[in-house]
Each structure stands twice: as C-alpha cells, then as structure tokens.
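Consider this one:
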Amino acid sequence: MSEVQKIYTPSSPLPPARTGRLTEFDPSTRTLEAGFQIAPPFLPLPVDVVFEKDVAVQMRDGVTIYADIFRPAGAEKVPVIVAWSPYGKAQGTSLSVMGVFGLVGLPNGIVSGLEKFEGADPAYWVAQGYAICNPDGRGIVNSEGDSVLWDRQDGRDAYDLIEWLAEQEWSNGKVGMSGTSYLAVSQWFTAAEQPPHLAAINPWEGVSDVYRDLVMRGGMPDTGFARQLQEGSFFGKNQKEDILAEVETYPLVNELWENKIPAFDQITVPAYIVASYSNTLHTAGTFRAWRRIASADKWLRIHNSQEWPDYYDEANREELRHFFDRYLKDVDNDWEHTPRVRYSVLDLQGGDEVNVAADQFPPADVASTKYYLDGRTRALTTDAPTDEVPAAYVVASNPNAVSFITTFAEETVLVGYPKAHLFVEARDSDDMDLFVLVQKLDAHGTPLEAFTTPNHSAMIHDLTDHGATILKYKGSDGRLRVSARHLDENLTTDDVPAHTFDRVEKLAPGEIAEIEIDLFPIGLKFHPGESLRFIISSRNLLGTLMPAIEEYVGANSGQHVIHTGGHHASYLQLPVQAL
C-alpha cells in the first residue's frame, strides 16, 4: 500500500444559510406545472417539469448517492446535462447563493432557483428538450461515503452516474456536463474516465491542477480559498478530505497531488471551453486544460467579464444550446463552423473587443518578444543592456518592490502568454517568494483596472481596493518561490514555463538563480502614449482572490536583488500581435 494517504476530517450538517426550499430529504416524483415559482424572487417555470427528487444511484463500490432530476413531461426521449459539485443540489434558493448573485450584481429573477449553484437552470433547459441532473456527490448532504476535493474519485463517480442516466427510459442515451468553477473542474476528471455515454462537456472556468492552482500556486502555501472551500462546502454525515492537513503533510508534489490532476490525454470528447484572463483562481487551469486535452473537437471562448454573469447571459446560453444540440441531439446546425478560438482584447477604458476569431491561442500573428529589464533607467527595452546594473529592495522596507516601464509609441496589442525570465539573488536569506505583475498605465501614468461584474457599488470598491481579484482586473500576475524553480522539461514551452514542485533548492550565499515565472494569459491593448509597468515584489501585489479569506504573506527576509544587463539580462517576454 502506498505511504501517501488522503487525510480526512469529520463533516457536519448543512448549515441554515446553505439550505434551500428543496433541501429536505424526500424521495418522490411530482410535476411542477408551467408557472410554478419556487419563491417570489425567482423565475417561474415556462413549461411543465417532471421533478424526480432524491433519486438513489449506486456507485461501483456500493456507495449510494442521491440526485435531483428535472425533465420534460411527455414521452420524448431527451439528453441529460449533469452538474457535479459538492454544493448541495438544492442550494439555488439558499441565502448563500442569493447573496453571491447580489455580490456580483445579478438579479435572482434571471434563474428559477431550481438550478445547482453555478449550474444550468432547469427552467430554460427543460423547455428546450433537455433533462437536468443535479447530484449530491459522495459524502454530500444525504449521499453516502466520504467526500474528496477535486479528485479522480469525482470522475469515477460521475462516470457511474452518467452510465446510469443513459439507461433511463426517458433518456436518449446522450449525456453532457456544464457549469462553472467546481462544476467545470469535475468535467476534466469525468471526461478523462471516458464514460461511453458522455457526449460533450462545457467547462466554464475551473482549475485543472489542485496543487498548482489552489493550494501551492508558485510553490507557496497560499491556502486561504482552500480553507473557505473546505470549511464552507462538503457538508454531510461522514468524513471529508482535509486538504489543509494534506498540504501541510505533503508540501511537495507526490502521488496524492498527481491524482488531483486529470489525465488530459484521455479527454477526447467534444469540449466547448470558456475562459477569462481575470479569474485569479481559474484562469491558469482553464488555459492549461485547453492546451493539453486530446479532444479533436474543442472550442475556446475568452470573455471579458466574470464567470457567473457570463454563464447566465441569455446570448451565451443560446450559444451553449447550439453546441449541445449538435452533440447531444445530433442536430445538423453547423456548430463545427464556429471559430475554434474567440478571444477578447481588454482596453480597461470601455473599449474592449470580444469574440475575435482565431484558429489557435495565441493567434498565429503573435510573436513572443523580449523586453529586457534595465536596472539603470528602470525601463523595458527590446535591446539587452550591455551593463550589468542590479535593482534591489529590502523586504522589510517601503517600497519592497522594483518596477520597469515601457511606453508604446504606436498601438500595441498583447495576446497570449507572458513570462518573466529573471536572474535573482537573496541576500541574508536562502529563499525568496516573488510576486510579479504586468500593469497597464494610461497616458498620464495612472494604473488602469476594470470591474469584471455588473456591481460597481461603493462596497465593491471597498472590497477590491486590495483583494477580491475575481471582481476587478488589475493586470496579469505571477508568482514563484525561488527554491521551487526547477522546470519540468516535458511540459515547459518557450511561452509557458512549468515547474515540477517536487524538490527544494535553497539558495547559497551570493548565488544568482536563473528563474522563469509564468504569468496569466493576457489580451490587452495599448494606445499610443500608454505604458506597461512590470512590477517585481516580495509582497502579494493583488491580495486575495475572494473577499473575507486569509491573505498569504510571502516568506521573505533580507534583500532581494534583480540582476539586469550583460550576462544576467533579465527580461519580460510578451506576446505582441502584428498590426
């Protein structure tokens, strides 16, 4: 038996704020007639809906989970869309979910309240001839077993559910998956198991590597959101995986963390993937999965907002139906002629471009261009400085950062993957936690940022001045603990460095380390006279990704030295589009 074992902690019942109108366990079948409204704020049903509540489904190991199924009335066989997550299947009417909608500025009246949090709404999809299946996975609410967090076990269980759904008398045998965040992540794991009746997936922003995206981004133990996820979800009767104890016990990549990476090369099902540049939890993972899955039929759309407004937008929902009609109903609707990539270019002053068509990402007309750091002038230049001039800061001082600027004389568009290639030294320390940021400045030198949600209230300003990064975009960021700098030769490309995170390589006194830091993908336009600022710091430049979670503080001391020019020509590599 392997010495690496999951660690569990007792779960607890669903708290009042997480319960909805239909949370109570009640195995039954009823018809919700057209006009039915679960509560006054929510959308009435446009058609009759057959509601099968708390349907028992047995997994391959004998564990029973429970699912809610919403399907059309009548005898026509229909496809099914599954929403797999640890968020109780009846939470759509909970105070918690209603509060999230309010936070981002969405009215609750755009959904029926029957949808799973971050999932497809039965009010729309049943009217379009689809069934919706909202399961409570292993260990969630009334389902049996112990729950896991983003794991290949999710994929095996969802496989069993999909094959069970395909055999139901009302099913046409085709199953799809859709949803954002956890509902997206579960799709990578499920598709990698290759259930025979899974016909299409729709991951709408989600991590694809728990270690690199959630608990140890850049090799740093930043577990604020992992704590919120573990303690604010996975409510049930039994045990739940203790991701916080696991990251403390297993700080380096091992078998446990590898089992929390989907087998991308086994994902061959048609996939319509939605991403953004601005979700500091999901962006890296969504683009990683897009690059690595084996599907011959895959589409990528990169939007310019936040995932929940984008997912529930009427036009986007109609387009998703177009995709599912093609692969779950075999409708010949020319979906295949949809551009394989549609990306956005952010302006940050109201002039964003969206749905720009391309055959690939980055687009073929993009060239990776090196902008060298000049420690003497603090400029970014396309010619490497000949003189070696270091730039440094003391970690305990203010400022504890150095930055470099280039001003564009003509319109410049960046689309693709930035990276930092740096020569760094730690004085009076044997390690460095480095945070980097690409920031846009207007013609007056003022940093530009933009809300990603419809809510622009005073409260949102307060929340996003520092932190709550999924609500406001401030630029493309990256981070790396220098002792975790070892690159994975199999996965690293010229544009996207990938680290193994399987070893610790401390710095010797006087050692100058050559490192590469991956930054989030970017789509950003600069007008003549506007500037790009590249910041290197010992502090977390953006803060937390969500409100009210613990912020990670870098493990730093002494002085950080960034070497530039000559034999230590540090540079920022940018994806510059030909105009």
Summary: The chain has twelve helices and 28 strands. The radius of gyration is 24 Å. The chain has a mean pLDDT of 97.
